[in-house]
Amino acid sequence: MVSADPAGKPVVVLGSGLAGWTTVREFRKLDTVTPVVMVTADDGHFYAKPTLSNAVAQNRQPAQLVTTPAEAMAANLNVSLLTQTRAEAIRPHQQEIVLPTGPLAYRHLVLATGARPIRVPIAGNAAHRVLSVNSLDDFAVFHPELQRGRTVLVMGAGLIGCEFANDLIAGGIQVTLVDPAPHPLAALLPAEAGAALQAALEAAGVRFCLGTTVQALDGTPDGRTLATLANGETLVADAVLSAIGLRADLSLAQAAGIACDRGVLVGDQLQTSAPNIHALGDCAQYASAGHLTLPYVMPIMHAAKALAATLAGQPAQLAFPVMPVAVKTPALPLVLLPPPANTVGGWTRESGERWDWLDEAGRLRGFVLAGAATRQRMAMSAAVHR
Questions:
Q1: How far apart are CA 158 and CA 185, in angstroms?
Q2: Is the pLDDT of residue 1 over 80?
Q3: Which of 203-214 are b and which e, b meaning 16 or more Cβ less than 10 Å from the residue's Cβ?
Q4: How far apart are CA 59 and CA 171, in angstroms?
Q5: What's the pTM?
């Protein structure tokens, strides 16, 4: 059993990603006394997750992506860090979590458990070769595959898939993107903007197979992977990367009876349906954002600062500002702000590199900026009606 500091029960944080570490850092600015215990299934090193999808072009090794080692983070923030440790259960009524070594009581519990890659069923004797990169550990597995071969099949032409495709092609890797949609980033971009991104990536060397999916993966005699697509086409790759999307990790929360939907449901103070339990980051679904999940850096930073104040006894209401998303596709830089969920309206092209989402009253509710138009980010953000 892990013993809490005699001064009282600790704040316990599950997860050592950006959400977990940022919450602790902000909390320590306000409270240097309350014990903090962080429990993480990985090694706890601090790194910027967005660097995972632009490391190849920069020729960076996995270890080079670590900005602060776990030991330094723990020492600097006075945290008891339990690495390579998975919480087995949450007991809200007892106000404790269960670790392999026994129960650990908490004053407040922070769920920063992130999200897991979505996996789809694929036939064939090489289906097990599909990789996903959602963490530094994942990248450490994927990176050696790039040294053994120079052709990668990427499943999914969404934000992460396009970022990886651009990074890999810039690093000298041949890339084929497969997606059932008619254009890349179909969930975020109007068709014209998607076509512009596709053209830019194709000019850089990316091959697209759209309107289809990977049905089967089979090994070849030379150790490569033969992909059979739903449209009957076949292609061979040295590695297969799944970038289909992420799904919030809800296993612990659901088992504990905490209210969940697409993420752990949290209110304006990041509180869950269970007393003294909060959530943020990729695992959370925010009431403050129209009950959306927001798997981006800026929402995490804002949520962590608000939650830290609440944990320190200074309750803070979370209010998200307008937060455009920058897509790391140097072939065609993009800044986009999706309209709020369930907004009635549509896209209109304002110029060659700008698209506005206008609601029924003609108010600006979202936008897409491409290329040189990305310089309008601040002005467009200020003009958005929320």
A1: 4
A2: no
A3: ebbbebbbeebb
A4: 7
A5: 0.92
